[in-house]
Backbone:
């Protein structure tokens, strides 16, 4: 079942010099999750946030920390991000030799486990994994940078995953990440997504605009 839509601002678009205030501000403005993009300069062509930053942010927000690991191999970092205060840890199947083991390890650490599918990764990557997942993330851009254009072909993937999740009957978040604006948010929701990551669309206009940005993103199609 598609759950009520939740908004997950990606702090990649926040003011990095004031990150604590930024996570507090989007939380007060109605965000549900805080989406934290972790990049290693190897799996993706950018370097962002490490576990110490997540730990430093934790006292500034009681929202769900939705940690998206774009690092390879991911296994070596699971404990550090779990200890730092992640609530959900999402990994890419290409970021390690044994994805099933990685997901079990996230659960063993007491965290929710997510699987992220790149634009070129087929729906079938969730086969044999879906019952163990708490979240499936559909990348609607190639990972690495905020502010890219939504890849419309990923709407089919969202629809296919919606059907699989509904057939299974388990509450699994279906999250879409990349190029979400007020229009693509509606398309993604119609296709079946129930968590919208939004970096640029949340943070544009500065703190005075966050509440209105989040309200508009959440508006049903
Ligand atoms: C891309 C990241 C996204 C990105 C979203 O690798 O996973 O979370 O920051 O940014 P926008 O919403 O600006 O496309
Ligand atoms: Zn992300």
Residues:
């Amino acid at each position: 079942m598609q759950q009520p839509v939740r908004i997950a601002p990606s702090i990649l678009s926040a003011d990095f010099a004031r990150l604590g205030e930024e996570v507090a501000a989007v939380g007060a403005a109605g965000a549900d999750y805080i989406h934290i993009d972790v990049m290693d300069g190897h799996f993706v062509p950018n370097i962002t946030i490490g576990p110490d930053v997540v730990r430093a942010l934790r006292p500034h927000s009681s929202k769900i920390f939705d940690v998206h690991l774009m690092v390879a191999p991911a296994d070596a970092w699971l404990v550090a991000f779990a200890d730092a205060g992640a609530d959900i840890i999402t990994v890419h199947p290409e970021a390690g030799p044994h994805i099933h083991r990685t997901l079990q390890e996230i659960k063993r650490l007491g965290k929710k486990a997510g699987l992220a599918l790149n634009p070129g990764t087929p729906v079938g990557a969730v086969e044999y994994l879906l019952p163990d997942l708490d979240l499936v993330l559909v990348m609607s851009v190639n990972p690495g940078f905020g502010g890219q254009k939504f890849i419309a072909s990923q709407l089919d993937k969202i629809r296919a995953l919606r059907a699989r999740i509904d057939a299974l009957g388990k509450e699994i978040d279906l999250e879409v990440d990349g190029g979400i604006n007020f229009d693509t948010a509606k398309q993604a929701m119609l296709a079946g997504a129930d968590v919208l990551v939004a970096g640029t669309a949340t943070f544009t206009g500065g703190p005075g605009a966050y509440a209105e940005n989040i309200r508009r993103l959440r508006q049903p199609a």
